[in-house]
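Entry: Limonene 1,2-monooxygenase
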Amino acid sequence: MALSFGFWSEQETQVGQSYARRLHELVDEVRLAEKMGFDCVALSEQHVALGGISSSAPEVVYGYLAAVTSRVKLRSAVTLMPQKINHALRSAERLAVTDILSHGRMEFYAGRANTTIAMRAFNVDPNETLAQMEEGIALLKKSMREDIFTFEGKYYQIPPRMLVPKPMQKPHPVIGIAATSERSHGWAGSEGLAVMSNSIYQGWEVQDKLLNTYRRAWKRDEQGPLPRPRVGLPLFFGIGSSDQKAKEDYAEALMHYARISTDAYPRLAKLADDYAYMNESVPAMERAGRDWDYLLNHSATTVCGSPDTVIRQIEKFQALGIDEVLLHLDSVNHEKIMEAIEMCGRYIIPHFNDRNNVVRPTDDILAQIRAMRPQK
């Protein structure tokens, strides 16, 4: 089965550069990604973030991208589900409208929130984020599947109402979650949801265990759009003309991202029982931020090198039985991102999905032809 490729961005803006300019650059990156054969575009949702990550309103960006693209899937990765950040019924409305405007190209992946800075800004109780995400997804599905629906839960109580309009895709777009704990992988499988999995830098064995937990728990939702499990892995990505060039261009940026993206996890682990599992990943997170060899070869999160090296690295992830990779292209300037998108489209995607159209050395082809000739 072909491996799907996603372009994943958090709209990270470099020091000294303009947030406004970065947003327009993102649009150019998405349009190039579609041209170069990427299957989907995934945008993060981050609020009041320190530093350069600036993807605070991805639902607005999806509406714009729907008009300037024609083929790629548009995926929230992820929509934050705490009720005070996004009411689930509002999320359903936005999803339905952008699905219509994109002619059925939306996908919805949810998350519970993983930064204390955002939770405190919206007065979110970290003890409630997991339960609110799970209940919010139930409301989201019910509102799209039923003409007139009601909902009675702990956080949401909806009298008989109708979602207007409903999405173009029936019964609704694919729904999934971002998952880093064994518990969330199991829950996603039991609900028949897609999963965007991550081991939080803990390595191959942990990643394989999480995926097996999801698959073992899988139970098809007979009313849902997914006929079988769907596993995606976000991979932090760098590419260059040689391994050394890729390391020079990306190593520090990728290690820096490892440090800032998980900075809140130790604090979260102390704030709520539902986040306590993050304590187990603290040593791996700290090592990934300072040890390039560990980050690249052992954390099961990162690919970086020449096209040939990147292909071998992704093949190792493919051996885990995944359906898609989401290449995180941030932490470097716009020109580097555009170059990486083009190289990926020229060398990486065709290798996995269109091999018989990839030019091979003449000697290799002749050797195969000679081997197939009748032996006298």
